[in-house]
Write a structure and sequence with these properties.
331 residues, alpha/beta, 15% strand, globular
């Protein structure tokens, strides 16, 4: 097997068109269609959401008919509000696939990173003309980001773009300050009337252990662990990688993980700087989308965020990242 590369040595250069082109559903949703969604009959709201999403494709893409009778109003946006593992992202990806192009699909963080990289005006220009903008895991923990996103979506929908969004409830925070529809509508006041709200109930279909632990590997054992992974791997010191992330715009993190199948991190420690932590969260999202297996020494990856951080305003971001780190460390 080839020796692991080093992410610290990579200087990804990603242009505006490449960044926009990367706004598609992650690989784990390649098979996500309306036909492959299996609603739980014990929770009728799942079947209702599936039916409504299918109806929207027709309502949004077919010309209005009827000369004498006014067609019922169809809002240009839909918001799926529900717990973890009920298929919200599956339905969002299925809707994206069913709509004509051009179209974009990304997490809230990816869109705000796009604005940060290109500037607001250029982002509007790049996304203008999209048939639909899908926003997975819409977040409200940063008022500035929420304001920018609301303004951006308002401009796009005014030019005919349709919107679809899901909540960002993390798996280990169900029932604990859930991101609810009322929060969403309150914070996006300027465009709240553009969205139809649909609640999806149900249990996590994956039955994932939300209290899992990320195993710790000895430094000397990491190369062997990576050698057992089929494909390109990388090995870096944790502190060196955290420092490197400060010099790479989050919109370009996709260039760090492209083609990567495994990542070894030596000397993981508890992060105490909020900026370092948020950049690491953005990288974790990219690693998770690409399903990159993690092997790490030092502090367990599920303990990488300090208690102070977990009690702060970005709590949901960190809890979601922990869940993803646990999953990747157990790959």
């Amino acid at each position: 097997m080839p020796a692991p590369i080093s992410l610290v040595e990579l200087r990804p250069q990603v242009g505006a068109e490449q960044i926009v082109a990367s706004l598609v559903p992650p690989p784990q949703f390649d098979g996500a269609t309306f036909e492959t969604y299996r609603p739980d009959t014990a929770h009728p709201s799942q079947g209702e959401a599936l039916q409504r999403m299918q109806e929207l494709v027709g309502a949004w893409t077919k010309p209005k008919r009827g000369l004498f009778r006014k067609a019922p109003e169809v809002k240009p946006g839909i918001y799926l509000d529900g717990g973890f593992g009920v298929g919200k992202t599956h339905l969002l990806a299925a809707l994206w696939k069913a709509m004509p192009g051009p179209k974009v699909f990304g997490t809230f963080i990816e869109y705000t990173a796009l604005v940060g990289a290109l500037g607001y005006a250029e982002t509007v220009q790049q996304l203008r003309g999209s048939s639909i903008v899908c926003i997975d895991e819409f977040e409200l923990d940063d008022p500035g980001d929420t304001m920018v996103m609301t303004r951006l979506l308002g401009e796009l929908v005014a030019n005919g773009t349709k919107l679809a969004a899901t909540s960002n409830t993390p798996p280990n925070a169900l029932g604990d300050g859930r991101f609810a529809a009322s929060d969403f509508l309150r914070e996006i006041t300027a465009i709240a009337d553009r969205f139809q709200i649909m609640r999806i109930d149900g249990e996590d279909y994956r039955h994932r252990d939300i209290t899992g632990h990320a195993p710790v590997v000895d430094d000397d054992a990491i190369p062997g662990e990576l050698d057992a992974i089929d494909g390109t791997t990388a090995l870096d010191d944790f502190d060196a990688l955290i420092a490197h992330l400060a010099h790479v715009h989050p919109s370009r993190y996709i260039g760090l993980v492209e083609g990567l199948r495994g990542l070894g991190l030596r000397g993981v420690r508890v992060l105490t700087d909020q900026n370092d932590a948020l950049r690491f969260v953005a990288l974790v999202d990219r690693l998770y989308d690409a399903q990159v297996a993690l092997r790490a020494s030092g502090t367990s990856l599920d303990q990488v965020f300090s208690e102070e951080m977990l009690g702060g305003g970005y709590r949901k971001k960190y809890l979601r990242a922990i869940s993803r780190l646990v999953a990747l460390a157990n790959e």
